[in-house]
Amino acid sequence: MLTSFRKMHGLGNDFVIFDERANSLALTPVRIAALAHRRRGIGCDQLVTLSLTREADVLVRFFNPDGSEAGACGNASRCVASLLWHENGKRHSTLQTKAGLLSAYVGEYGEVTVDMGQPREQWQDVPLAAEHDTLHLPLPGDPAAVSMGNPHATFFVEDFSLLDQGHSLEHDPLFPERANIGFARMESRTKMRLKVHERGTGVTEACGSGACAAVVNAVRRGLAERTCQVELDGGVLRIEWGSNNHVLMTGPATVAFEGTVDLAAYPS
Ligand SMILES: N[C@@H](CCC[C@H](N)C(=O)O)C(=O)O
User: Fold this and answer.
1) Is the ipTM reported for this complex over the cut 0.95?
2) In which residue ranges of the chain is pLDDT below 50?
C-alpha cells in the first residue's frame, strides 16, 4: 500500500512530511533513518510527522536522518504553518512541538513568522554536562550556548574553516544530548552570515533554530541588535528577539513536490 508524503523546504533545509492525522504510520527510528537517507530513501534533512492534538491545530514531531528526535526545527515549523494555511485558509496557526506550543502567522506574500518561544540560557537547559557559563564555553574558539528547544552552540568566526569540525563538536562530551553547531560571521550589528552543522544531520543549507540561537548569542555577547538578518547558504531569515523574550523567525516555506512511498519496503 502506498502512503502519501509532501516534500517541502525552508531555504533548502528539506523535509519529508507524513500526515498521521487520519491514520498513524509505523515510523520507527530505523524506518525514519532509511526514508531520510539521500541515496537509499526519499532523502531529507528532517522527517516530520503531523498528528491530531487537543492542545493546538496540529502536533508536530521532527526526526533527524539518524533517527533521533529533535525538540525544535524552525524551518520545518514554517513549512507546517504554510501547509495548514493552504489547507484551511487561516493565516494564524498553533503547533504543538516536543519543546512547547508555537504560534505562527503567514504574511501577505506567503512568508511565515514563527514565534519560537523563549531561549533558555541556563547550562542545565542547553544542556551542558556540567556547570559552565553558557556565554563562554570551555572549548577552543570560545562558543556560546543556548537552547531554542534544542541545543545550540555558536562560534563567532572570521571565516568558516572550523566547519569541518562540526561533527566532533556535536559529539563533544560537554553536550550530553549532542548539539547543533553554528559558525557566525558578523557583517554588521544587524547582519550575520551563518553556517550550521546540524545534530544528527550534518551541514545543511539553513537551520532556523540555529539562526535564532546565533542571534540570541550575538545579542548576549553585545555583537548584534535584537533584530538581525541572518544569511545562510540557502537564503535569508529575519530574526527578532522581542522585549517579551520571545524569538520571532520570518522566512519562506516552499512545497517541492508530493509523492507516495511503500513504507513496507523500508526496514522497521
Ligand atoms: N533544521 C532545523 C533543526 C533540526 C533539528 C536539529 N538537527 C536538532 O537535532 O536539534 C531548524 O531549521 O531549526
Assistant:
1) yes
2) none
